[in-house]
Amino acid sequence: MSLVPNPGPGVAPLGNVAMCLSTLRRAITRPAHLPGIVVFYGPSGYGKSTAATVATIHCDAVYVQARSSWTRKAAHQAILKGLGVLPAKTVAEMSDQIAEELALSKRPLIVDEVDYLAERGTIELIRDIYESSQAPVMLIGEEGLPGKLKRWERFHGRVLDWAPAQPASLEDCKTLSELHSTKVQIADDLLAKVHDVAGGSVRRICVNIARIEEQAQVEGRDVMDLAAWGARELYTGEAPSRRRNA
Amino acid sequence: MSQAPARHCSPAGVLTDRERLWAAMRELRVFTIRDLCRAVNTGKDRDAAISDSKAKDYLVGLVRAGIVGKGLTVRFEPMRFELISDTGVRAPRVRKDGTMLPESGRNRMWKAMQILGEFSTRELMHAASIPGAPVAYSEAKTYCGWLARGGYLLQSGERFRFIRARFTGSKAPQILRVKQLFDPNSDKVVYSSDPEGRDDL
C-alpha cells in the first residue's frame, strides 16, 4: 500500500478540506523526533466530516467515530473493525493487535467525536495506541476540544499541531454552489447574501442553496440573483421570531 | 531485512484467493510456490483450491513491487521466495507489472459514506474520488441504489443516509452477477453459475 498520500493536484476545493488534509499529511511526513498526534476542531456545521472524509480517503486512513457508550473494549473493537482485523479476546491483546497493524501498514488513524473520550479517561487509550505504534493520529472534535484535552497533560505534550476549522469563506460558498446546484446558476450578489446569513456554517449554506434551487425551478428560472430572490427568507439556523400582525 | 513474524492479527471476513495467499505468505515468511499452495489449500474442498498458476500470477506482481524477494536460481530446486515487506493484514493490490493499485472505488465509497453519514450521490462521488482514480457518477448512483436495497442506506429523494448499525466491517459489499438457466415450461431455475464480479484483485 502506498503510504505517502497522493501528491496530486488539489482536489480539495473547500478551505477546511484542504486544511484537514494538509494537517494530517504533516503528521504523516513528520521527522521521527516530533510527536505524531494532530487535532482538528471546530463548531458543528463547519464541514468537518466532509474534510475528514477527504483526508481518510486520500491518506488511506483508518476512521472511527467515538460514541458516548464507548468502553475501552468497545473502542478497541471498533478500531479493529475499521482495520479489518479479527479482534482478540482481551483489551490488552486487542491493543497489541491495533499497534501491530498500524505500524506494519503505516496507515494513519482518525478518531472523530473525540469529545466523548476527552470527558472521561478513555482518551488515554488513544495515547497508548500512538505510543506503541507511532502511527500518525488525528483527533477531530468540537470547539472546546483543546480545553478538554488540557486536562490530560501526558496527552497534551504529544500534539504536533492544533488546526481550528475555519468559517466558510465566500470562495467556499461559490464552490458549494457549483457542487450542489447543477440546474440553476446562483448569481454572485445572492451568493454573497447566502454567505452573510450563514455565519460560516457550510451546512446552512447548503440548505440555502437547495432552497434557492428549488424556488428557481418552481419559477422556471435558469439564473437566480438577489433582485429576483427579493425579500424572501433565507435559512439562518435561528428559531423563527414572533410574527407581527400588520 | 526480514521483520519479526506477525502473530497477532488475522483478517476478518471471507477471504478472496489473493487474500488467502497473502495470509499464508505472512505465516510462512519463506516458501516455494508448492509450499504456498499446500498451506492455502488445506481443508478446502477441491473446487475452492487455488491453482499454482494463480499463486504465480500474484507472486510475479509482488516480486516486481519489492514486497516479496526471490531467492537464487538453483538447478533442479524449486524457487524460494521470502516476504520482505509485511504491510499488514490487507493483501497488497498489485498489478502484474508491480505497480500498486489504489483501493477500489467501491471500497472508497463504502468508507466515505460511513463518515459523511448523510449525502447526495454527487457529494459521495466527489468524496470518494482520488487523483488518477475518480469515481463516476453513474457508478456512485448504481452502488447507492444497491446498498439502499440491501438496507445499508435510507433513501429520501436524492439524498441517502447511512445506517450505522449496518456497518458490518471494512470491506465494501459487492454487487455480484449470477447467470441462471431458466426453463419457462417447468418454471424452474435449472442451473446457476458461480457469482461473478467479486472484488478479487
UniProtKB/TrEMBL annotation, chain A:
Residues 35-148 form the ORC1/DEAH AAA+ ATPase domain. Gene3D superfamilies: P-loop containing nucleotide triphosphate hydrolases (3.40.50.300). It holds the Pfam family AAA_22. Transmembrane segments: none annotated. SUPFAM superfamilies: P-loop containing nucleoside triphosphate hydrolases (SSF52540). Coiled coil: none annotated. It comes from the Bacteria. This is ORC1/DEAH AAA+ ATPase domain-containing protein. It comes from Desulfomicrobium macestii. The lineage of its organism: Bacteria, Pseudomonadati, Thermodesulfobacteriota, Desulfovibrionia, Desulfovibrionales.
UniProtKB/TrEMBL annotation, chain B:
This is Uncharacterized protein. It comes from Desulfomicrobium macestii.
